[in-house]
């Protein structure tokens, strides 16, 4: 099973959202083996990572996987060095033929394509996270939004 996550980069975490996230993971994953595909950028991604790490502590068959949109960004610190220490594995989707400017967009679509389930933190009807949310809904995959908003 593969679970992926998407949410706004300015997401504000709360105890209520954490409880909802952990409950969704318990309901949809339980004790089965699962890979959690995480983006690693922005506040929702940090929130999702923290929740998944907490879940993994009591569910050892879970793997936290960083799906990077970039192999190497010139002139910047390589995100793989830092993230390689936090995650169980790092994946790079087959998007090398896509313009670097759209790497995150294509990475997010790839994550949705691979996922059995998508968990979101979407509060507004615009932006990259919302685009990913709409894409997941169009694929008729189970999509859960921990934010109580009608979009």
What's the short version?
The chain is α/β, with parallel strands linked by helices. The chain is 39% helix and 19% strand. It has five helices and six strands.
Assembly category: single chain
Strand order of the largest sheet: 4-3-2-1-5-6
Shape: globular
Question: Roughly how much helix do the residues carry, as a percent range?
Answer: 25-40%
The tally of helices reads 5
| Mean pLDDT reading | 90
Which structural class best describes the helix and strand composition?
alpha/beta
| Terminal residue distance | 27 Å
Radius of gyration: 15 Å
What is the N-to-C succession of helices and strands? EHEHEHEHEHE
In total, the number of strands is 6
Question: How is the main sheet built?
Answer: 6 strands, parallel
Low-confidence stretches: none
Strand content: 15-25%
Walk me through the structure.
- By secondary structure, the protein is α/β, with parallel strands linked by helices.
- 39% of the residues lie in helices and 19% in strands.
- It has five helices and six strands.
- The protein has helices spanning 15-28, 42-58, 79-83, 103-114, 128-138, and strands at 2-7, 34-38, 62-67, 89-91, 117-121, 143-145.
- Strands 4-3-2-1-5-6 form a six-stranded parallel sheet, sandwiched between helices.
- Helix 5 (128-138) links the parallel strand 5 (117-121) and strand 6 (143-145).
- Helix 1 (15-28) packs across helix 2 and helix 4 runs parallel beside helix 5 (128-138).
- The longest helix is centred in the N-terminal third of the chain and has 17 residues, at 42-58.
- It is globular, with a radius of gyration of 15 Å.
- The two termini are 27 Å apart.
């Amino acid at each position: 099973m593969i679970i992926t996550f998407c949410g706004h980069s300015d997401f504000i975490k709360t105890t209520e959202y954490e409880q909802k996230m952990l409950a969704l993971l318990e309901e949809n994953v339980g004790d089965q083996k699962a890979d959690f595909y995480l983006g690693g950028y922005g506040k929702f991604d940090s929130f999702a990572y923290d929740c998944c790490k907490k879940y993994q502590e009591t569910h050892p068959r879970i793997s936290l996987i960083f799906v990077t949109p970039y192999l190497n960004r010139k002139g910047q610190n390589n995100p793989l060095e830092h993230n390689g220490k936090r995650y169980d594995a790092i994946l790079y989707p087959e998007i090398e033929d896509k313009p670097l400017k759209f790497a995150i967009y294509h990475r997010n679509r790839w994550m949705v394509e691979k996922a059995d389930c998508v968990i979101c933190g979407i509060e507004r009807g615009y932006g990259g996270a919302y685009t990913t949310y709409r894409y997941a809904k169009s694929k008729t995959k189970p999509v859960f939004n921990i934010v109580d908003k009608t979009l």
